[in-house]
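Hey, I'm writing a tutorial for new members on how sequence and structure tokens pair up, and I'd like a real worked example in the thread rather than a made-up one. If someone can provide the structure for the chain below, I'll link this post from the tutorial.
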Amino acid sequence: MAGHANRKAAAAARHRLLPEGRVAGPMPWIIAIMMFLTVLSAAAGLGLGAAVRSMSADLAGRASVQVVEADAEARDRLAARTLQALRGADGVRAADPVDPALLADQLRPWLGDAATSGDLPVPTLIDVMLTPGNADAKVDRLRRLLGGLSPKLRIEPHAAFLLPLAGLLGALGWLAAGVVLLMILATGAVVVLAARGAHDSHRTTIDVLHLMGSTDVQIARLFQRRIGLDAFLGSALGFAFAILVIVLIGLRLTAMGSELLGAVTLDTRGWIVLATLPLLGVLLAMLTARWTVLRALGRSL
């Protein structure tokens, strides 16, 4: 009977040690900020990675043929012969001339009205899509084919122009991954400090619990549960604001109408990864708190 009463008293004391009421202290807000930055960085890394993959897949099999004849009539005749040769060439899936009006619109910011006046000879462009696989060898074959038609034909693979950009996007993606790692380490450090502070502030009560028969694991579980609750609230708050910002940025990117910026998207797998971050943050906080308190209790014996 006395043992049962002691166990009930120990349980009541343990619950009084870290009450389950309103969260106090800065730790939930700090975790909210950390989670906000972590989700944004992870979204940036995932979006940039998707853009690089999309760009690589799209540009690997595409090239542009330029007809650089100055005379307009000769340029049109050469473009027609080139288009016919390209459509019959091995390794070419499609060949289509670029709309001159579209080309003029793209040149107008730099050339002004000269882009459409006809006074400035603008090359005719032909967009070429290659069959999958071994794009470099196919471009070399087409270069020899076009060289036999006319010396005024040029072919350039799209990847040659945007390869540095793809490298930049890839580097930014790795930078975002590094920021995520730093945020994880910072969150762990915050939890360690919070757990140590909580342990020091309840040292007297912990001694009483030890005298009443509570084990270190039971005491550490209280800190683990309390810090887990703080981490859950902070992670939920930071995650909600981060998703709001991501949605707003996505709407702005879509409104810009840029194919390159439009490729910075999150697929279903990316959204799943983002959704797991708050759960992983709570798990990290609970495990870190448990380890910290158990270590502190072990040193105090």
